[in-house]
Amino acid sequence: MKIRIWLAMIVVYIAWGSTYLAIRYAVETMPPFLMAAARFLVSGLILYLWRRLAGDPAPSRLHWRSAAVIAAFLLVGGNGGVTWAEQRVVSGIAALVVGSSPLWMVLIDTFIPISSLRGGSQGASFRQGAAGWMTYAGVLLGFLGIVLLIGPFEIMGHAQNLDPLGVGVLLLAAFSWAAGSLYGRGARLPESPLLGSAMEMMVGGAFLLMLGSIFGEWSRLHLAAIQPASLLGLVYLILGGSLMGYVAYTWLLRNAPTPLVSTYAYVNPLIAILVGNLIASEPLTPRLLFAAAVIVGAVALINLTRNAPKPVLDELSTAVPCCED
Questions:
Q1: Quick check: bond before 311 cis, omega within 30?
Q2: What is the pLDDT at residue 5?
Q3: Greater confidence, 247 or 325?
Q4: In whole numbers, what is the pLDDT of the chain averaged over residues?
Q5: How many CB atoms lie under 10 A from the CB of residue 60?
Q6: What is the mean predicted confidence (pLDDT) over 218-235?
Q7: Residue 115 near residue 123, CB atoms below 8 Å
Q8: Residue extents of the structural domains in the chain
């Protein structure tokens, strides 16, 4: 199980770290919500058909309701917000701002127990046991590293101030993703995690399609004007970001401790910066590398909570039985 968890974490690190640049290219010549809708509708339909043909039973109405709630948080509020914001904020900065999601996960888990919102008993919290202070210290250290990465803005080669609306939407997207991630740990979904992921992508894609229609994006969609880079970005988002990354993330939410899963938001900015340097020639400065070292240290500190005394980690990893129907 440990090997599978770490393999899934590596997939999430690489797949999602590189999707920020893919999103930036995709929205250059495609409306953001319609582009995101196409991404999740296509990948969700492929995955859903595969799992149904493989013998997974048809989901119930309760399963679809849970998938709709998760999709609203993760794919509409989270991914949809990031996609829209990258029209105004460059991909590297977007990845760094979204890195605040682990902080939101800890705050939500502390002050708004998600289990109570589902009508169940209060589950494990970061406040419990000896591991709590280490988790908080790791989150705060990671957030400080992100602050070092963001400012001053010239470290990313951009002297102008960040767009406030874009940054605000990114922060809301991070909060939405954190809430959806915690809610998804105990939501009633099909026994097959892959089928559950497909349902979330299909419902999320439908929501994004409606959102794009409400904002009048059809009038901005001109097929002849779509550039090859945007098409390649969309294809990569479908294959890497959705079919690989999102499936791995959904599986991790049901099989790995929340502190470990949340570390993706610290590693993703590093991948985004490296991809930006290799493909878009974004600079790698000493200050940026120092901040990267701080973030990696935060990841190591959070991972130490996996070795904390029981019952903290047992509750974090087993409060929601795997594949519970």
A1: yes
A2: 92
A3: 247
A4: 79
A5: 13
A6: 94
A7: yes
A8: 2-318
Distance of alpha carbon 192 from alpha carbon 194, whole angstroms? 5
Instruction: For residue 4, give every residue at least 6 positions away whose Cβ sits within 8 Å of its Cβ, in sequence order, or none.
Output: 255
Tokens read off for 289: 């590398």
Q: Specify burial of residue 309 (Cβ count, 10 A radius: 0-12, 13-18, 19+).
A: exposed
| 6-15, 57-66, 156-165: range with lowest mean pLDDT | 156-165
* Mean of pLDDT values over 12-41: 94
Residue 96 CA to residue 170 CA, distance in Å, equals 10
Q: Which residues contact 97 (CB under 8 A, 6 or more apart)?
A: 89, 146, 150, 167, 170, 171, 174
Q: How far apart are CA 194 and CA 53, in angstroms?
A: 13
What's at 277, amino acid-wise?
A: N
Residue 250 reports pLDDT greater than 80: no
Structure tokens at 220: 């901005």
- Residue 261 contacts residue 109 (beta carbons within 8 Å): no
Residue pair 209/109 in contact (Cβ under 8 Å)? The answer is: no
Q: Give the C-alpha separation, 75 to 89, whole Å.
A: 19
